[in-house]
Amino acid sequence: MRNTAKLTTAVLAASALTLGLTACGSDKDSGSLDASGPLVVAASPTPHAEILDFVKDKLAKKAGLDLEVKEFTDYITPNTATEDGSVGANYFQNQPYLDDFNNKRGTHIVPVVTVHLEPLGLYSHKVKKADALKSGATVAVPNDAVNEARALKLLAANGLITLKDGVGNEATPRDITKNPKDLKFKEVEAAQTPRSLDDVDAAVVNGNYAISAGLKPAKDALVLESPKDNPYGNFLAVKKGNEKDPRVTKLAKLLTSPEVKKFIEDKYQGSVIPSF
Q1: pLDDT tens readout for residues 210-245
Q2: What average pLDDT does the chain have?
Q3: pTM, whole model, 2 decimals?
């Protein structure tokens, strides 16, 4: 994932101090932030931080927004840091993932504005077409509940498996009712799916991790999610109560501006799709 900044505990603590010294004497349940400082946003390196860096470099100053971008390479810390005030917002996730996270962890993160879709894709170093997968082939899938279900639905939509009716975002390999190729599934951390390609026959990879690994979803994926009626758009999110923070509303407006739409279309060439 390029030379990504690793956010250590010390940096998190420093960010918390920078963001909200006033929070020490405030009502924690309100989720209010100190609106006088910079808006610190936690983001996955690609494409989220790249999009935020574009906003910071090209648009934020004119809009009167002091924006700071913190990169994370996992799907947990951005939400926990947003919940505890170490950062003011995050940009990395979709609604099914957030719903699952809030339910399991007791957090209070809410979406502000949807910005883009990263189509999930099936990739392989061993075959050129999905139907060329051999009987008994091993397919790596993300091991978090939402992305695993999403991966299985992608395979089902392309005829590789059949899932039990109505399983939705909770599908697991146990919900497969037909598996004509007798595919085997290896559950790995989402960030590790690109690296697993040398060890398995194919892998279902999230768009941001595919791009970070040098894959081009629009070109390299054996099969790719359709953007039509897709519930997995990625959005700017905050702790409940901070939706109207003036810095957040400014950033939401900038992230859905014509300039950002053009940036996404020009840079990612269909591998990331604007959702506005």
Answers
A1: 998 999 998 999 999 988 888 899 999 999 999 999
A2: 89
A3: 0.74
pLDDT digits (tens, 9 = 90+) for 105-143: 999 999 999 999 999 999 999 999 999 999 999 999 999
CA nearest to 146, candidates 37, 210, 231: 231
Q: Which tokens belong to 183?
A: 């595919």
Assign 3-state DSSP to the chain and report helix, strand, coil percentages, each to 5: 45, 20, 35
Output the CA–CA distances (angstroms, integers) from residue 15 to 26, 35, 263, 276, in the order listed: 17, 14, 29, 31
Distance CA 240, CA 29 (A): 9
Would you tell me how many other CB atoms lie within 10 Å of the CB of residue 209?
A: 24
With a cut of 80, say whether residue 15 has pLDDT above it.
Answer: no
Calculate the alpha carbon distances from 99 to 62, 79, 212 in Å.
35, 12, 26
Strands 162-163 and 67-71 come out as unpaired
How far apart, in whole angstroms, are the C-alpha atoms of residue 223 and residue 129? 8
Identify each DSSP E strand in 26-128 by its residue range.
39-43, 67-71, 89-93, 109-117, 121-123
- Half-sphere exposure in the Cβ direction for 139 (13 Å, CA): 27
Q: Nearest to residue 206, comparing CAs of 183, 234, 186, 235?
A: 234
Tokens of 217: 């979803």
Quickly count: other Cβ atoms within 10 Å of residue 136's Cβ: 10
Question: Which residues have C-beta within 8 Å of that of residue 160, sequence separation ≥ 6?
Answer: 130, 133, 180, 181, 183
